[in-house]
């Protein structure tokens, strides 16, 4: 069987702007073996071009077309639901660019959707505006449910936490597009032209990466260089197919990661 790889970025390939040892060799082996892959991230702040530049600084060269973000998945979903619609957006360039590229108009006046993404500078006035627009009938979409995200100083509130604030104020739950929604996995599979039965997902989080991989019918690999540990993984009612210490453990095994041949 020829495998196709979906892999998370933060905690798997890089951590706090540093290369995780072996990540560059792993990706080089995928290319050498002509194995299709896509790098997935729930981070909606950056465009694929931005992320490529970020990865290049760590020593990883990945083309833009091999990067799939929750912002791109959200834009694709909205374009399928209401083509050429309108949205009030709380987010940064990764999200606004993705929405513009599918023909969406960004507006504060009677939008079809309020779309919440990741940003380092959440504005209370923008959150208040979002609450009022949702109260007036706008549908509530969020790029991903992650409650916290990493920073050099430690954890910081992320999209899920702000979504909870807006939900509490409006009584309206958001529809989350990113992981663990298997919708993001299926959109990634379509982008690659791949099928679930021969695709695996590598991630560092049980609650998003492994969860979404299992729900999309993929084989899953948990790497211990990010959020989850062997101990915390035991708390979940589901299990990854394989647990590895680091992405480096897959070097030399990309054709047969589970040792079945």
Automatic annotation (TrEMBL):
> Binding residues for Mg(2+), per the UniProt record?
8, 10, 204
Record-annotated active site: 8 (nucleophile), 10 (proton donor)
Q: Per the UniProt entry, what species is this protein from, by scientific name?
A: Amycolatopsis xylanica
What's a single GO MF annotation on this record? Answer: metal ion binding
* Family that this chain belongs to: Belongs to the HAD-like hydrolase superfamily.
Mind giving the lineage of the organism this protein is from? Bacteria, Bacillati, Actinomycetota, Actinomycetes, Pseudonocardiales
**Name used for this protein in its record:** NagD protein
Q: What cofactor(s) does the depicted protein rely on?
A: Mg(2+)
Q: Which CDD domains match?
A: HAD_Pase_UmpH-like
């Amino acid at each position: 069987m020829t495998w196709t790889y979906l892999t998370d970025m933060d905690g798997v390939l890089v951590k706090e702007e540093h290369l995780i040892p072996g990540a560059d060799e792993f990706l080089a082996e995928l290319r050498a073996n002509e194995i299709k892959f896509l790098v997935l991230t729930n981070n909606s702040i950056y465009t694929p071009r931005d992320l490529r530049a970020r990865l290049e600084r760590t020593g990883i060269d990945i083309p833009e077309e091999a990067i799939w973000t929750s912002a791109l998945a959200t834009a694709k979903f909205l374009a399928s639901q209401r083509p050429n619609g309108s949205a009030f957006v709380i987010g940064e360039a990764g999200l606004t660019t993705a929405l513009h590229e599918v023909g969406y108009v960004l507006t504060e006046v009677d939008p079809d959707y309020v779309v919440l993404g990741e940003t380092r500078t959440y504005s209370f006035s923008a959150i208040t505006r979002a609450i009022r627009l949702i109260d007036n009938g706008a549908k509530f979409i969020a790029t991903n449910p992650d409650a916290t995200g990493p920073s050099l100083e430690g954890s910081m509130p992320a999209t899920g936490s702000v979504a909870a604030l807006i939900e509490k104020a409006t009584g309206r739950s958001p529809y989350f597009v990113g992981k663990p929604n298997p919708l993001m996995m299926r959109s990634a599979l379509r982008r690659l032209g791949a099928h679930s039965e021969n695709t695996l997902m590598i991630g560092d989080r049980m609650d998003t990466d492994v969860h979404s991989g299992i729900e999309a019918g993929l084989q899953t690999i948990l790497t211990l260089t990010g959020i989850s540990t062997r101990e915390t993984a035991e708390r979940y009612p589901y299990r990854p197919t394989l647990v590895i210490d680091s992405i480096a453990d897959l070097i030399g095994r990309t054709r047969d990661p589970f040792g079945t041949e």
